[in-house]
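Final report, closing paragraph on structural work. Over the funding period we assembled a curated collection of sequence-structure pairs, and we close with a single example.
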Amino acid sequence: MQDSGSRRKSWKYHTVSPPYKVQNRNQSSNPFKNLPTFPHQRTFCPHLYQPLSTEEELEERNLLDSIAWPRPPSGSEPLNLSQTSDLAHSLFTIVTSQNNHSWYVGDQLEVQIHLHDFKGQPKRYGGDLLLARLHSPKYKAGVAGEVLDHKNGLYSARFPLLWEGSAQVEVMMVHSNEAIAVLQRLREKRPDRVYFSSIFHQGEQSEKMGCNLCLPQDKGPLCNYTDLHTGDAWYCYKPKMLSCDTRNNHFMESPLKNIITNKEALLFQKGVNLKYPIHASTSDTIVVLPSKKGTVDLQNYNSHFWGMAISHHIVSAINVENGSKIPDPVKLATSGYYYQDIWRPLGGVTERQVDGLSITQCLANKLVYLYGDSTMRQWFEYLVTVLPGMKEFKQESTIKVGPFMALDSTHNILLKYHFHGPPIVSKANAVAHKIRYIANELDGLTGGPNTVVALSLWAHFSPFPVEVYIHRLRHIRKAVVRLLNRAPGTAVVVRTPNPRALDQELSLIFSDWFALQLDVVLRAMFKDLNVMLVDAWQMCVAHQQPHNVHPPRVIVRNMVDMMLSHVCRDGTTTDA
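Its predicted structure, as stored:
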């Protein structure tokens, strides 16, 4: 059995046509075309909203518009669970092919999804968050589907058919529209549902004080740790006996409890309406036959539709209904599929699987800087274990937060990992003076052809208003631009967010909906730079392994392989 990998190395990425072209087809049958979206109001910490230039203000508005989400039509009426999405009554159906119930490599599969409420009645509005994938466990193959919200209770999922054999459709609802309304409110109104502390220590004196991005000033004097270069804010309450410069560490306290009502809690039930599959009305499986055309020209295959991340059409199409400006489609450098557990990119990156020797050859005489959260720490840990000559050096660090360093002195490879600056939503202690902002770290690099930079920051920003994330990314982007201007040969890789396992408690802080919104923002802010995006979102959705904030090693390996394909695109690696 063959996949189409050998036939599609020349398939270049095509941007999707503007979402309104897709959405307009459905407007005539949509009784809720004027469904209101959540307004974006700056209600969190006025000091975070420093004066923006006209260009920055326009960018921020377009970014916020691009992630606007429809709110339930009930508005302020009391929540009625019986009228929300019930997966036990909802179904999906595979649309009959145009080839007499036969599908071929190079075709497109379409699935129609019908959502019903707990009374068994069809829902009449959209805004639910759905994920879809087509997979073949036998071949360790999988691809993420493109989900379209028709905003009338009906959804479509589309998949390119890229390999032969039996393939199974899976559709799951992450959250109902009503659950997302709760998450929207928490993000804007209750960012304090996660809070932090620091130990201030000098001699025999020690004091524990509360810290956060924003603190009420009427509860005591503050220590201001706002970064003078980037303007990223951080505060702690001032100790009674010690000075602000005696701050020793940083850690998260237990999240706040009882922040939603009992009725709202019913929207986050595992096995009922929280990240749970939707069943097929009949069969969920098709058989894909070899292409009738022989060698398939996939370069132009469905370029009109394919290439956007999961559910991006949902958020974009909504804005057209409300007259908002649609940002240009965001290019995805690594959208692809799995075959034999190897990620096959659909873009311009040459696919290759590399072993430890090939990685050593690729990274010889290079400085590799990995910045971000624990999903980037996974890349560090993978490289340390797979490179035979790599030795890790212990530093003043913590087990989870770092910083970490490793060296292969024989091949002159230096590997460094550094966590991003606060917020750090982790109970692990972080050494206060080791917490540095990525933009400042990038400005300290010389850069050049022997420098590799990889970035990943998203999970720890989920609880906070999106403006906080935009501010952080804007300064990182400026630092990346400065780095590439002074050292054009520097290889820069950006890892996108990914879905994770969820229960009720995690959903209120780290929901996939939060991650998806940050995903849209991140892609838009880096789309015009000479950087590579590693599409962690689709790589996790498409794989057969359960979602995890820390993807399993097989996915991490493919992510690192994608980075190396970019770093060594001049052919310095050899195929395994």
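The radius of gyration is 24 Å. The chain has three domains: 11-182+270-321, 195-252, 352-567. We thank the funder for supporting this effort.
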